[in-house]
Amino acid sequence: MKKRTKKKTERRQRHASQHRPVKKTMALTRRLLIDLSSRRRLFNAGKFSTTHKKKPVLHEAVSLAGFLRCSRALVSWMVAERKMQPSPAAPPAAEHRRRALLRYVVFLAVSLLAFSCWALVSSRIDGAVLAATAGGEHDDHDGIIVRSSTQAEMPASGGNATSRGAVEVGVGTPAAMITRQPSSGETTTTAASAATCDAESALLRVYLYDLPPEFHFGMLGWDGKAAGAAWPDVAGDPRAVPRYPGGLNLQHSVEYWLTLDILSSTTSGDHRRRRPCTAVRVTNASLADVFLVPFFASLSYNRQSKSPHGGHGSGGRSDRQLQGELVRYLARREEWRRWGGADHLVVPHHPNSMMDARRRLSAAMFVLSDFGRYPPDVANLRKDVIAPYKHVVPSLGDGDSPGFEQRPVLAYFQGAIHRKNGGRVRQRLYQLIKDEKDVHFTYGSVRQNGIRRATKGMASSKFCLNIAGDTPSSNRLFDAIVSHCVPVIISDDIELPFEDVLDYSDFCVFVRASDAVKRGFLLHLLRGISQEEWTAMWRRLKEVAHHFEYQYPSQPGDAVQMIWGAVARKMHLVKLQLHKRGRYQRTLSES
């Protein structure tokens, strides 16, 4: 009797273990159906208002609910059929484990299916509820839905240039507030608003150090003592402004144009109304975003580096002495000591300028022609700005630019051929292509009408070769751009101005130096460019050429404004680093 009872108990336990997954599945299905039924009653009772466009969602939920009911009925039938079958003999242990594992897997699969169905239906119904709720917030007048629009607001930061120049946009744009930066060909202000250009509306606020004239316009013959002023009068006739020397001196005259522009930013007159409101001078150092050091470093190198007593207007001091005095002057300034000069702007555009002071001033932002003669810890693309050379050939107007058929020369180069370092590629190229009939590759300089011959040669050539010399860059690239001669850049280490806003591949051809010196490679590449491709680059050249023009008064989108825009973009990262560095100043002062 006891054995029979024990067998019945074991059979009952085995039967219960076999049907436990099915029971759990049925319980889960029952809870899902209850949840769906409650949601459906809410919709039928009108708790959530919705339009006819939301009905397919509810129908989908009902169809899924029906699917779950069918699944429950199928499971119930399977259980009933299982109960009607006689119990077989107990399977072997291995078979029993296999069946248990199979039941476990089936249980997991059915559970995941049920949960997925519930999650899908729940999310669809929640979406319908939210849509119906949002639709109720609009006012409906005479059957016309009046949709509201919102505008996000961004608090302006008093000391950050990024908040100025922000433009609000309506709903439907990626962001409700975007920061405007001067882009390619874009006018930063209109003539009507230029009259109100001030520290609040400008993109960049610049503090200008009042250095003695021997550091800047005194080199150009301007006598500050006789004028009784710290700076030349730029408010009157622009023709009365001290002139920069011509020839190759002009190609590195960047500091001259930047200083003139910032001086004119606070003056009155017609030229100010035409001037874009990108950078403006402030006399309160606490309001400045950047501090401009007005040292004409390139002119000082060209005129005073070879004389122990300096040149005209230097006060009897050489270039090296001026650099030493500049370093001592800045070291005494509280503005420099505050952040170690990280928010200062220095313009040694000539590759050989400020050789003695560059490392001691390396914390500042430099405006350079390239990094060819700078170690990476002194100058790099992270903190410094690359500015274009001032071209020395005259610019071609749109109507004066010859087209494809009017340019018989395929490739043009005129300049020094024997160079050192990376410039040795010039000599190898000269040997390869000098005898080609449609190639002009000769030695040339500014002497013997060199500029006039270069002007004529570039305007009659389809492609102008810009080959690395002693440094990665030269003004030859920018002479080609304003001549609308498609530049062919053969300089692996070159850095290009404003490349974050200009895609040079739209109007230039880039060739690696290792490929250019392969026999036949360069000319095969250039001859393979069709007239349509060349014309597209030629048209793009005419569109971007004004970005490389230095002029006073400055005009929208010219080189001066592009440089200020590049400085403003660099200052975002500088400000971030400076603000992070100053987090614990109060704590350190207390300790």
TrEMBL record:
Entry keyword Transferase: yes
Residue stretches spanning the membrane: 101-121
UniProt keyword annotations, A-Z: Glycosyltransferase, Golgi apparatus, Membrane, Signal-anchor, Transferase, Transmembrane, Transmembrane helix
Subcellular location as annotated: Golgi apparatus membrane
Pfam families for the chain: Exostosin_GT47 (PF03016)
Every Exostosin GT47 domain range: 203-523
Region annotation (Disordered) ranges: 1-22
A GO-annotated cellular component: Golgi membrane
InterPro entries registered for this protein in UniProt: Exostosin, Exostosin_GT47
Membrane topology reported for the UniProt record: Single-pass type II membrane protein
Chief location category: Golgi
GO molecular function: glycosyltransferase activity
Lineage top rank: taxon: Eukaryota
Family: Belongs to the glycosyltransferase 47 family.
Alphabetized PANTHER family for the sequence: EXOSTOSIN HEPARAN SULFATE GLYCOSYLTRANSFERASE -RELATED, OS08G0438600 PROTEIN
Protein name, entry field: Exostosin GT47 domain-containing protein
Lineage: Eukaryota, Viridiplantae, Streptophyta, Embryophyta, Tracheophyta
